[in-house]
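User: Some background: our group keeps a shared notebook of sequences we're curious about, and every so often someone picks one and asks for a predicted structure to add to the entry. Today it's my turn. The entry only has the sequence so far, pasted here. Could you supply the structure so I can complete it?
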Amino acid sequence: MEEAERIDGAIPSKADHLCVLVHGLWGNPQHLEYLRSTLEERHGQDKLRVVVAARNSNMFTYDGIEVGGERVAREIEEEVERLNKEGVYIKKLSMVGYSFGGLIARYTIGLLYSRGWFEKIVPVNFTTFASPHLGVKAPLDGYHTTAWNYVGSMTLSTSGEQLFLADSFRQEGRPLLSILADPNSIFIKALTLFKRRTLYANITNDRSVPFYTAYVSACDPFVNMEAVEVKYLSGYTPVVLDPDQPVQKAKLREPIPFLTRLASRASSLMTQLPLYALLAILAPIGSTVFLINSGIQNFRSSRRIRLHEEGSAGMSFHDYRIPLMIENAKIAVEDAIEDVNGCQRIDYLTEDENITSQSETKSVKMPNGDGNSHRKEKLTTNPKTDPINGFPNLALSAEQFEIIKALDNVGFRKYPVWIHKIRHSHAAIVVRSPKKGYEEGKCVAKHWLDREFEI
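Assistant: Of course. Here's the predicted structure to add to the notebook entry:
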């Protein structure tokens, strides 16, 4: 089993702040190398210790949020213990989750909370980049909902069931994502303790994690980019949108003549025809290979989970199996899935069915970019003041609406992100590799460090 990445060389004893980065599904620590190196360059090892969790690498992410969270919690405790032996005493903790790693990070902090960690260590920053807080269950009505969500939940072992809200966690009888957002859970209690809670969401071209689930929203104004106008945040144009007024409906334009539209569509079809022909040949082969691999990985994941439960995987995790609710505690697949997920048609609620959040806008003190002085920030959760209010609600499940309400009550600073240069914004938002076109993600990281990350 891989150990957490270590930073070579002596660490000055002044570094009392530990920042833990958690990668996503099918991921590995290298995916967060840019964030890690940028954090260190900005703050230096004399102030900040950065670790990228490594025990959930690659196919180990199939094993689910619970197992992944327990692994990360163990890594953190071992890292702090190792630093203590070197004379480095951690007093502050920050958690950063990318994609599926954001859900693992939320589970991890609940475990640390239950073990009394935050009675001695100050939780500072909690940040997610393109994380599916509402899961990836398609917002659809009808038979196609059941078909797609069922197939999707069966291809990624325990992680797939949890992402599609198809699981019944432990004895709770509810999906784990619902429990993660339960106001009485250790996970929400832990989340509320963090001084800064921030999330970044791609508004388009994220085939893995659509905007609404990363942004924790009941609507998605960016389905048709031609129908809206966006407003950028000064200094971070044209990538980070203004969190207080990110989007508005576009002004009515002159209708395009029918013949012009017809010619444009014909030209587009002819351009894409070779691609469609290639997909017609490769899709059956790719689907077969993917499903076979999914079956193999599901089997391996089930075996790993069983060993994990039995404590036969090299270490025991039974200490982390604690009650999840405060009251009880007191008493006692990337390419394949994202391509299919990305092409799903989005359905909306009818006007009569339209459900709006009942949570109120809260005004809280949050530190500004320099990490010292404080300003009042509106956490826009009220339908009347929500910056993306006025767009129709998606046909989400009841559980997803409850998750939105709970997380909005906790309060996040939310930043929509528009990656233009590449049609794979999910990877670009964290500069997952030095690939050409990913450089716009550097603007996202710069904003995070300038405005949101407190040392």
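Suggested note for the entry: Residues 1-12, 329-334, 355-384 have pLDDT under 50 and may be disordered. The radius of gyration is 22 Å.
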